Amino acid sequence: MPSDYIADAETVQEMxxxxxxxxxxxxxxxxxxxxxxxxxxxxxxxxxxxxxxxWVLEVAKSFPHMHVTGIDSSELMIDYAAxxxxxxxxxxxxxxxxxxxxxxxxxxxxxxxxxxxxxWFIPAEHHQRIASEWxxxxxxxxxxxFIENEQPVFTNSPALELSTTKFLTALNxxxxxxxxxxxxxxxxxxxxxxxxxLGCQEIQxxxxxxxxxxxxxxxxxxxxxxxxxMTTMIPIIVATxxxxxxxxxxxxxxxxxxxRRGDFLxxxxxxxxxxxxxx
Amino acid sequence: MQEEMPFSPPDFAPLPLPFxxxxxxxxxxxxxxxxxxxxxxxLSIALILSPFVQRQVRLEQEEGEPRKRGAPxxxxxxxxxxxxLQRLLTANSPSRRPIPLQTISAWHKRGLLRYRQWGxxxxxxxAALLITRLLHPxxxxxxxxEMAADEPSWWCWRQDAPDTPVAACPVPLPDDLPPSSxxxxxxxGAAWDRSWVGIGExxxxxxxxxxxxxxxxxxxLEMLARWDIRCASxxxxxxxxxxxxxxxxxxxxxxxxATLALYRLASHRLAHEDVFSLHx
Lengths: 279, 280
Fold this sequence. Notes:
The structure holds 2 protein chains of 2 kinds.
Chain A: H1 12-28, E1 44-48, H2 54-62, E2 67-72, H3 75-88, E3 93-97, E4 110-116, H4 127-136, E5 138-149, E6 154-155, H5 158-173, H6 191-198, E7 201-211, H7 219-239, H8 245-259, E8 266-276
Helix pairs in contact in A: 1-7, 5-7, 5-8, 7-8
Chain B: H1 17-25, H2 31-63, H3 82-91, H4 101-109, E1 115-117, E2 120-121, H5 123-135, E3 154-159, E4 167-171, E5 182-185, E6 197-198, E7 204-207, H6 221-227, H7 229-233, H8 244-269
């Protein structure tokens, strides 16, 4: 199945990074559903780019009356998530391999659609068209929610800052960042305009700050994620001639060293934005 | 054994010895490279395979006995299948070229791929193949040519008593191990077999007798006292009441204390910074 994904989602390094990210996000971003959504009125939920299925399984567990579906373009991720659902006995959690550009669902199938970290995969010029397809399967009065992280992170590690900047430059060169010059991803900037374009009402945004400095509860999980990210992002940085493989290896080493220091500081934030389909 | 080899086989669990020897025999793969990458790769593979293994175990429990149907490569309601292994190996090989079923079949004939049952690779062996694939940089020649049928699947650490030396021990375990021998491994996937107690990402630990108890090979309070006098001192047997019911409760109490002792013993053997004792 063709994929817009920026890395090979089925390599072990990327699978582990996605598993860690899934756990981190589900733990760090408070509230499984947007705060103004009454769970009692929700029957069908869709998670777009569900990865290993952490969010789907949490929702299925917390709200047994809901029918929760996760889709992803990676067969291995879908298999992984489906096995977890079977082991956990979550009969109301379902996983399907599907390209999010063209959903294989009838119109108005879902009350809530959740899309986390999907802006990374979508070329900037296709944001509106793809989001319209998601909007098609949302019921009248239903809620579409995006959760995105902004890059680069705020840090006192020069090597980590340079690594993320190089990554953003590479993404910018393949048209996958919205901010000019490749110094920021711009992922969090596009959420409100996107919801407005779709015709959503009652659009809301919240931000959540995550401190992953040395010694904080998020530290270990975040730096593991950084280390795995660096490995999986090498191909795109090299392919776009943003940096040579040799220079990148040296930068990776330096980053690993700096993020392990006792004085390491790191801060990032997530933006959650959602809106209601009129009706 | 350790005098003859430049490494300790239990450090490389769940890799069988021929896999480790093959990796180290490659000129471009130094012991330092292995040492750096092996531990995190082992953890990654355990994390990825875990839900598939749990599903497989559940399927076998539901059916009451190992399934006989299906063929290599066929997906059977999830679990650890040949198809899953094939896809993971393909996605993680340098060439990304699909691995044909004939190759899988040839590995099986040469003893490199072991099956739990028809269509379902052995969990530890599947993990070993994946780790080896990830460690070896070449598209071809990443496996040894063959492996004997009686070659141990992997090696763990063994200590027969607190004052005896630590030694390498093959898995599957020898039948003549003393019931009170302590066994441990940094391979967390060992705990997929319920005889092992998983200690998070640090590894797994067990008594030799677990799951293999017979009337003459029982784990006793005296054995527990030799390993952990504090745990043993917590044993207060239930008074005789209805005979065998009291014995059941006492056995359960002893088993729980023996497990508690495993956690305490694991903290010295597994949970420290450098679990890797590779000789470089």
